Amino acid sequence: MNEKALSNLIALGEGFTTEFKRSGASGLGREICAFANATGGVIVIGMGDDGEVCGVPDHNRVKSEVQSIARSAEPAIAVEIESVDEVLCVTVPVQYSKPYSFGGKFFIREGANSQQMSREEIREFFYKEGLIRFDETACDKFSLERDLDKENWSLFQRRANIPADMEPATALRNLHLIGEDGRMTHAGAWLLARDIRKFNISAHVSCGLFMGTVKARILDRRDFHRDVYSMIDDVVAWILSKINVEYIIKHVKREERPELPEEAIREAVVNALAHRDYRSTANVQIYVFKDRLEVVSPGGLPAGMTEAALGIKSIPRNPLLFGILHRMEAVEQIGSGIRRIRELCREHGVAEPVIEVSEHWVTTTFPRPTAQDGDQVKGTQSGPSRDPVGTQSGLSLDQVKILRNCLFEKGISELVTLVGRSNRTKFRNQVLNPLLEAGWLERTMPDKPTSSKQKYRLTERSRSLVAELEQERP
To answer: Range with the lowest mean pLDDT among 41-55, 225-239, 287-301?
Structure first.
């Protein structure tokens, strides 16, 4: 600190990073602690609040007192003390062992003042600094007796590769989803929920399809609110049903190719749900426009993460949730999400997404490739084509095929074989369940949805659609 720098500091007056003290070290511990818990700052001793220089009579004695005060903080705070003419400048650099306390109390900088933090402010500070992980805290709304039912447990057990003979409580405790106090953690509640909104009112995902490039006219809107893993599948299936799908026929085998890489979309959705701030009153939002797909996640970046580090390192906001999703193979590889999305887009031959970061939001925007002159393209069997039926009706190729073949009742095995799939769970989540929820298909045994004798048929509503599909068949 030289005379010119001090002069500039005085000219700006007291503020968030500057404090003037008329004399001595009285109350200095409070100020040093507050700056350490914020972004650092400078305390000028020997300066009145009005900027009038009073001076410090014994610099060495005051320097010693300041050092002693800084060392008595918990943990000790590193400070730099300089004599500049008649005043002492105490610089508190940015600290990396937050939070700091002095005399057993925590202080924070608010504007030009240092204030003692309340219990709630301390708690919020700990969350903001990543010192308390919300996903690891107890979810008081989750009852092990009422909310952990057999169907939910069986689904989670299969997804997380838990031995069939292991007791739920034992498995959940070993996975740290049940705490030492026997209560379910928030991460456990989100992964075992029938309806996640019961435990976090804004933990669901809202999806919207818009006409054109602005939010002027909405064509379709869906909310998904099952457990986190199911929401990932449901949201990805919904997105794929709203974007164009190309197909290439090689010999007798058809390959489907969405206009955007499915795995990149999935990674973006996983990131949005795994790294969002679940304490926020906002929810994850998915927007499909004519020219782009947006995945919007609340909470900004987690503590310690910078925008420049995206794609280079990973600091999960919810490490327990993220770790279990990795165990469930919803996450391909820890720490590779953004990098993998970019690589998948390059391999697919489309533009890389744009990632925008603000204090409260992270938005991943995928530019959509458009057909020449904005028209749908019809191809032949020798090359790629976009399916006009699937695009116009909001249905994927597999869903269209199911509807065209469900004039008579069919079981799940017939339907899976019909579209050439092997994974029944993904088929249900991506193809069958959306048709049921939208009212295109109905169960023959609605009171027994999991019956082995269950079959599916067209609803009255969908029969007219099928007639239109047949007329549009090339």
So the answer is: 41-55
CATH code given to domain 387-474: 1.10.10.10
Spatial distance between the Cα atoms of 256 and 62, rounded to a whole number of angstroms:
75
Distances in whole angstroms, Cα of residue 192 to Cα of each of 55, 77, 90, 124 = 65, 43, 52, 26
- The least confident of 146-150, 179-183, 253-257 is 253-257
Does 201-385 match 387-474 in CATH topology?
no
Please give the Cα distance from 13 to 17 (Å, whole number): 10
pLDDT at 438 over 90: no
pTM score, whole prediction: 0.58
The answer to whether residue 358 scores a pLDDT higher than 80 is: yes
What count of other Cβ atoms lies within 10 Å of the Cβ of residue 395? 24
Q: CA 315, 136, 362 angle in degrees (round to 5)?
A: 40
* Domain 3-128 listed as CATH 2.40.50.1020: no
52 CA to centre of own chain: 50
Which amino acid makes up residue 68? S
Tokens of 280: 């926020």
Q: Which CATH number fits domain 201-385: 3.40.50.880, 3.30.70.890, 3.30.565.60, 3.30.565.10?
A: 3.30.565.60
The domain ranges of the chain are 3-128, 134-198, 201-385, 387-474
Residues 191 and 230: beta-carbon distance below 8 Å: no
Q: Secondary structure of the chain in the HEC alphabet?
A: CCHHHHHHHHHHCCECCEEEECCCCCCHHHHHHHHHHCCCEEEEECECCCCCECCCCCHHHHHHHHHHHHHCCECCCCCEEEEECCEEEEEECCCCCCCCEECCEEEEEECCEEEECCHHHHHHHHHHCCCCCHHHCECCCCCCCCCCCHHHHHHHHHHCCCCCCCCHHHHHHHCCCECCCCCEEHHHHHHHCCCHHHCCCCCCEEEEEECCCCCCCEEEEEEECCCHHHHHHHHHHHHHHHCCEEEEEECCEEEEEECCCHHHHHHHHHHHHHCCCCCCCCCEEEEECCCEEEEEEECCCCCCCCHHHCCCCCCCCCHHHHHHHHHCCCCCCCCCHHHHHHHHHHHHCCCCCEEEECCCEEEEEEECCCCHHHCCCCCCCCCCEECHHHHHHCCCHHHHHHHHCCCCCEEHHHHHHHCCCCCHHHHHHHHHHHHHHCCCEEECCCCCCCCCCCEEEECHHHHHHHHHHHHHCC
What phi, psi does 88 have (nearest 5°)?
-110, 130
Region 152-171 average pLDDT: 90
